[in-house]
Amino acid sequence: MAFTINQLFNLSVKYFSAITAIITVLPLPVKAATFLVTERVSLGGNDQVDWESLGKVFNPSAPEFSAFLPNSFLATSQRGLGLDINITPTNNPQITPPFVFQTLPSPGIRSNFAKGDFILFGGIDPTGFIPLPPGTPDPGTQGNSGPFTISFAQPVLGAGTQISVDTSKLKVETSIAAFDNANNLLGTFSVPNISSLALDNSAVFLGIRSDTPNISRLVFSSSNQQYGLAINQVSIIAVPEPTSTLAILAFGVSGAVLKRRQRT
Prior knowledge:
- By secondary structure, the protein is α+β, with helices and mostly antiparallel strands.
- It has helices spanning about 5-15, 15-25, 40-45, 245-264, and strands spanning about 35, 45-50, 70-75, 80-85, 100, 120, 150-155, 160-165, 170-180, 185-195, 205-210, 215-220, 230, 235.
- The strands form 2 sheets. Strands 1, 2, 5, 6, 8, 11, 13 and 14 form an 8-stranded antiparallel beta sheet that branches.
- The radius of gyration is 25 Å and the shape is globular.
């Protein structure tokens, strides 16, 4: 049976309610491809969490117990996305709880992040500090190696951060794993990382992005269990305000109806 253009148009308008109902009920195709991202600019984040926003920054010149964080705590991104942070506790009673510090030139806290970064750190054994002569390489101090788990209140398209361990000139494997809200592993990647205390922004960036907003949890870890793990600000590809397929279809049909009425 052949239909004229006007007949097809009239049918589409007549059954518009049924079409929209089907679109509302049926889920869109689900994709699960994930990709490793090793540069912050390549991630293309539209949101972030800076650890300064927690309101607790450890001052090495005047340390206070109140600056320490629990191993599990909540944070909020700049766009209001909730995050649940969990740092696996250590079995070493000498290691402090997690804390945030700011990288500064000597005599501040050194790392291989950029100067002025706010760093979330797993914790350190303060009894391991040994005064060293000027120019002597710092062998590092034992600390909490995590892993760090970041759960998002709503699934995101991607996220990542720079990551390092607290020691000098040590090659380690740093890893990132992504999970969906049903705890299914979406992807896991590891890259070599050479730690240092040079304040040169050489800490490797580890991120994952997906072609669908299904990333509910990220886990960051290191192959070295002796030294403390650290990350800087987390960049996030948050899901934009939903553009409904239904709204697009409704707009298109209503526009066509208006044009037809204008012609008649």
